[in-house]
Structures are given as structure tokens and as C-alpha cells.
Fold this sequence. Notes:
The complex is a heterodimer of chains A (255) and B (137).
Chain A: H1 2-14, E1 26-28, E2 31-32, E3 35-36, E4 39-40, H2 41-60, H3 70-89, H4 98-115, H5 127-149, H6 167-207, H7 211-214, H8 216-252
Antiparallel strand pairs in A: 1-4, 2-3
Helix pairs in contact in A: 2-3, 2-4, 3-4, 4-8, 5-6, 5-8, 6-8
Chain B: H1 2-39, H2 43-72, H3 77-100, H4 112-121, H5 123-136
Amino acid sequence: MACTKTTRNRATNKVANPLEQFTIKTLVPIQLGDVDASLTNSGLFMVLTVAAISLFLTLGMRQRSLVPGRWQSLAEISYEFIAGMIRDNVGSEGRKYFPFVFSLFMFILFANLIGLIPYAFTFTSHIAVTFAMALVVFLGVTVIAIARHGLHFFSFFLPSGVPMVMAPVLVPIEVLSYLSRPISLSIRLFANMMAGHTMMKVFAGFIIPLGILGGWAPLTVDVALTAFEFLVAFLQAYVFTVLTCLYLNDAIHLH
Amino acid sequence: MTMSDNTPPEKLEDLDSRLHQAREKSHANKEPGSSSGKEEMSGYSMAIRIGTEMVAALIVGVGIGYFLDYWLETKPWFLVVFFFLGAGAGVLNVYRAASGLGMAPGYNEPSGGVASQVKQQEAPNGVHENNKESGDK
Lengths: 255, 137
């Protein structure tokens, strides 16, 4: 009994901490006054993501052939995907926001996909990053709504046909519901990425300790999870962007 | 010479017609199934979405209540009030996410089409609820 306990302890000690993959490490320390502006692994992968997107789009569209090759097809599909999303969800008035929405989608998608490469860092698994993106979307959409509709924007918080007696209760609830948008937007992306990567690490940690006989079960689970994570990586980028489009639609066509 | 002059346009025209055919086919396939494709999300992602909608509103409510209490030194009254308001907003968010299919928690339903389809799908339940409501009134 004691023997098995010690071996188990030794085994769990060997298992890597599944949350270790999320630690931020400073790579190049930079100090600007009181601000710590060091290049971290998170920042490095953001730069890598932007570089990968730029390479993908510029190299893919380099040939500009009428009949697209594989890479050009991919670049065109991603363009048409977002263009169609904006057309369906916002309408023709949303066209001028295409660059922002497209950048957002590509940034999140590439971040999620690059994060799936072993030893890569997934910066979308950090609430600080996703919340910053959601906050930009939220503030931008609110500013657009106020700029387009002025004070009429605040009628958004009182649905039509509601008796005035209900207003003191309904207006705060509506305001809270509106304010919860960036939170739910950021938590959804962050929680999905973090949960998926933690789960993969937990199962991966069991493969070696269980040995050649039992190790196959967690390995199978991990293979299945990897496929699932590709789905999640795409789905979450899609959900984030679709919600941005729907918020834009609300801001532009205020009823 | 004439061959090489003629073949590329022919090929292109051929491609054009083929593209048209393929596009029509894919559109024909898409139109009936397009709405259901969007709605058919996995249960896992649906659960995550509904959960975050609820939790996010609660976080905002409790956060605002806590801040107001801290600022005005009125512990615990604002926290209590905003906890319930946040819970209400959370239920509202969940209701909108689950019924409107609009992932939009705004008042304006994105389009009548999807919502009406959903209502038709839930007709057996909807009828009962409508009856109940009219009976109560």
C-alpha cells in the first residue's frame, strides 16, 4: 500500500503541470519609465501571428491568376467568408467596417491555430488579451452607435411597448445586459481555448505514467481532442466575429 | 496557331459554365439546409455560450454593486440590488441566446425568418404556452 502510494506520488511529480503552458515568460526585458514593456512569449506569438497572416495573404495573392491556385483559393475563401458574413449580418452599410472585422477574424483564427502547434503559446487563452479585443469591439460599436444616432441611442435600453412603471427595473437590466457583452465575448473565447488546452495537457500527462499497456487510452483521447480543438479554434474565431457583426448591426440599424 | 488562339477562351468559357452549374447546385443544396446548419451547433458550444451569457451578466452586476458600495460606503445594499439586476440581465441574455438564435442580445431580432422558423419548430410547446397565457389574462 505504502509502496504504491510512493510510486504514484513519484509518477504525479513527473507529470507536467497542465497549467504551466499558460505562464508568461519574459524574453527580451524592455523598461519604458515605469512601464514594463518587455517582449514576452505572448507578445512574440502575437507578432508571429500577424506575420503569418501577412505572409499567407500576400504570398497567396502574389500570382493574381484568374483561376486561383490552392493558396490563392484559401486567401479568397477567407475574404469571401467575412465579406458574406458582413453582408448577411450587417448589410451593405457594414462594408466600410470590413477591414476591422477581417483583421479580427484572421487574428483570432491564426492565434488559435498557431497555438495548436506543440510548444507554441496560445495567447487567446489569456483573459487579458481576449478582454482587450472585446473591449475594443464594445467601445467601437458604442461610439459608432452614438455617432450615428446621437441621444436616440439610449432608447435602446427601453424596449418599445413597455409600460413606464416597469422602466425603473427594465432599464438597469437592459444596461447590465448591454455591459455584459464584452465580458461574455471575452470569457467565451478565453474559456474555450484555456479549457481545451488544459484538457489536452491533462490527458497527455497520463500517457507516459500509465505505461505501454494503459497509455493508449489517454493517447486516443488526446488524438480525438486535437481534432476537436481544430474545430473549436475555428468555431470560436467565427463566433467572436459573428457577434461583432451582430453588435455592429445593432449599432447601425437602431430600432 | 489558330488552335492555340482558340483553345484558351473555350476552356475559360467551359470553366465559366461549369462554375455556374456548380454554384447553382451548391445554392440549391444550401437554401433549405442553410438555416439548420447554423443552428446545429454542438451541445458543448451551446452550453458554453449559455453559461457565459449568464455568468457575464452576473459578473457585471456584482462588480458594479461592489464598486458602488465601496465608493459610497453603503455595504451591502448596492451589492444586493445589483446582484438581482445582474441575475435578471443574465436570464434575459440566456433567453435571447436560446430563443432568438440571434446570438445578439439586442432588442432587434436579426431577421424574422430564423425566429419564425424556430417558433414553428417549437409549435407543440408554443401552443400550450399561448393557451396558458391567454387563460391567465
